[in-house]
Structures are given as structure tokens and as C-alpha cells.
Design a protein that fits this description.
By secondary structure, this protein is α/β, with parallel strands linked by helices. It is about 25% helix and about 20% strand. It has seven helices and 13 strands. The mean pLDDT is about 90. The structure holds fe (ii) ion. Fe (ii) ion binds next to loops.
Length: about 350
């Protein structure tokens, strides 16, 4: 009931924002093009999530996305990559993927695009036949990775090496709200992490669903105190993912899914929440967990920053990684949420 009310208010506020984007200018500091925060940036990328593009209301939803893509393409220091961390579409239909492909195709945002699957993207026209070559979820995801990112993949997961840095995209292999990661995917993930760690550089892991019980889950998912502990998270394979992550230093796990604000500023509706958390690895060093806000929807539930159009710019330097909050739709930095993570070793 509480969640339904919150969603309703969020939708109303979203409608206001969609129809009146300049309001968002109130939400940040003065308009400024994307530039590196310091000299000698080794890799920089933007990460946004939960765009939820729809075929109906296309001009409004695509227009809201256009604002952010325009900001990325106007970067003074060109981004090396842009990551779309799932729920790109609202229902995984071809027309919704086409809206996304058309928008991304209209802008020169970065040489590398990382298209990650979200639960909504697995709810396509033939969700019951995941592998159906005509319109199954998996062939559709593979097809649009080629169209949008010019990337040849064979599974719901893949990795990319950009400026020497590993980006490992995990993805559900079933059409649930939580994720399903096969033993094959987990074994592949373990191997990719080993290769990534051999570089001695930070490792970026992209997965739509957060790790179970992080970022205020499970309460923050449905605002129900009695929910099972894995609600709103990866689900059954969360511990196995964590076991792999914990073996390595300088890991950054980037998720979306909750539609959260940058941090909890004491909303009466929200449970304790932080968009950036740490989890201790086997060496006693921090794994950095970053939860992205919904690009398309207002966050009414969690407090903190309210407006949509937001995400992070991540910049890796020798010795540190900078996490910089940005409203891409309005072209404004939100420096009050920035964090710098010192690297180990
Ligand atoms: Fe979502």
C-alpha cells in the first residue's frame, strides 16, 4: 500500500519532470560539460540505469533519454564508455529496443557502449521461450547488442577490455525479477575476474540486480519489513557472486534495479540506504558497491536527490577511482554526492 502510494507520487513527479525538464536545473550546480576531474585519467565512463523506454509515449521517454545522450556526446573530455545497466526497455519488445537503438544512434556518446540486461528487458514478447531464435529474450538481447554497441556476444553476459580495464557484464538467464545465473555463467565469471585481476587495475562488474541485502534491501524493494532477505537482489546466486568478488582487490560492483536516490536523507518512507556502500573482501579490503538511480523516474521513496536524469561518471586514475554524480539530463554535477575510492596495492 505504502509502496503503491509512493509509486503513484513518483509517477506524477516523473510526468512533471518529463514535460518540464528545465526544472531539473534547480537540482544541480551550474551547467557544465563533462570534463575529467584531474589530469591523467586512465579510463572514464558514464553509467545510467532503469531507463524503461516504452513504445507508447515515445517522444516523451525518448526525449528524456536524448537529453542525457546529448550531454554525453558534448563531453569536453570524451567518455571512453557508457554503461546502460539494465531495464533499458520497459518490456523488452522490439519497438522499445528500437526506440533505444534510434536514440543512441543519433548521438556520438562514446566508442564503447555496454548494454546490460535488466529484469524488464527479459519480459519480451516471447519470455516463455527464452532461446527462441525468432523473438526469444536471449536472441533479442544478442541482436540489439550488435545493433546498439556493435558487440558480438553469444550469451546474456560478456566482458570488454577498455583502455586495459576489465568491464564484466553479468546477466540473468531467466525472466524473473531476481536473476538466474547458471553454473556456466558463474564459472565464466570466476575466470574473467582472474584475468581482470592479473592486470593489477580496478575491475568493474556490471549487473542490474544488487547483491542481496545491500543498499537497504530487502526493505527498500517493497517497503515490506516481512519480505524474504533476498528480495530485490540477485536472488539465489548472490552468495556465489559475492564469493567470487571477495577474492579480489579494487572491485567495483555497479547495479540499478531499486530506483533509488543518491542516498538516504531521512525520508520517512525509506529504510536506511546508501547508494555507495562497501563490503569487506577476503583480504580485509573494501569492495565498492554502487547503486544507480533510475534515469527515467523520480525517486520519491528513498530521500536524497529527487530528480531523474541522473547517474554516475566514473574515472579511474593511478591509485584512485573517482565517482562523480551527474544529472545528465540537465548537464549538472552533483558534487555533494561524489566519492573518491583509494585503490589498494
Ligand atoms: Fe527498473
Amino acid at each position: 500500500m505504502l509502496k503503491t502510494f509512493a509509486k503513484l507520487v513518483s509517477l506524477l513527479l516523473t510526468a512533471v519532470m518529463l514535460l518540464s525538464a528545465p526544472i531539473g536545473l534547480l537540482s544541480g550546480k551550474k551547467e557544465a560539460k563533462i570534463t575529467h576531474a584531474a589530469p591523467d585519467c586512465r579510463v572514464s565512463f558514464a553509467a545510467i540505469s532503469d531507463i524503461h523506454l516504452r513504445g507508447n509515449f515515445k517522444p516523451i521517454f525518448q526525449g528524456m533519454l536524448d537529453l542525457g545522450l546529448n550531454d554525453m556526446s558534448n563531453a569536453k573530455d570524451r567518455l571512453d564508455a557508457v554503461a546502460f545497466v539494465g531495464d533499458i526497455t520497459d518490456h523488452g519488445d522490439f519497438d522499445q529496443w528500437d526506440v533505444f537503438a534510434e536514440a543512441v544512434g543519433d548521438f556520438d556518446i562514446a566508442d564503447n557502449k555496454l548494454v546490460v540486461v535488466g529484469n524488464h528487458d527479459t519480459w519480451g514478447p516471447n519470455r516463455d521461450e527464452f532461446d527462441n531464435p525468432e523473438d526469444g529474450v536471449k536472441p533479442t538481447f544478442i541482436h540489439y547488442n550488435k545493433v546498439i554497441a556493435d558487440r558480438d556476444i553469444t550469451e546474456m553476459y560478456y566482458s570488454a577490455v577498455i583502455n586495459g580495464y576489465y568491464f564484466i557484464a553479468l546477466g540473468s538467464e531467466a525472466d524473473h525479477v531476481s536473476a538466474t545465473l547458471s553454473d556456466t555463467q558463474l564459472a565464466w565469471f570466476a575466470g574473467e575476474m582472474e584475468k581482470a585481476a592479473a592486470t593489477g587495475l580496478p575491475i568493474f562488474v556490471l549487473m542490474h540486480q544488487p547483491i542481496n541485502q545491500t543498499h537497504g534491501l530487502p526493505y527498500n524493494w517493497e517497503l515490506n519489513k516481512d519480505d524474504p532477505l533476498d528480495e530485490g537482489g540477485i536472488g539465489d546466486e548472490s552468495d556465489e557472486v559475492v564469493d567470487i568478488l571477495k577474492q579480489y582487490d579494487n572491485v567495483f560492483y555497479i547495479s540499478g534495479h531499486i530506483h533509488s536516490g543518491y542516498k538516504n536523507a531521512g525520508s520517512k518512507l525509506g529504510a536506511p540506504y546508501a547508494s555507495i556502500e562497501t563490503m569487506e573482501n577476503n583480504n580485509g579490503n573494501p569492495i565498492t558497491l554502487i547503486n544507480l538511480p533510475s534515469y527515467m523516474y523520480f525517486d520519491f521513496i528513498h530521500g536524497g536527490h529527487l530528480f531523474n536524469g541522473c547517474g554516475w561518471v566514473v574515472e579511474a586514475y593511478d591509485g584512485e577511482v573517482m565517482l562523480r554524480a551527474r544529472n545528465f539530463a540537465t548537464g549538472t554535477w552533483l558534487t555533494r554526492y561524489d566519492q573518491t575510492v583509494k585503490l589498494v596495492g
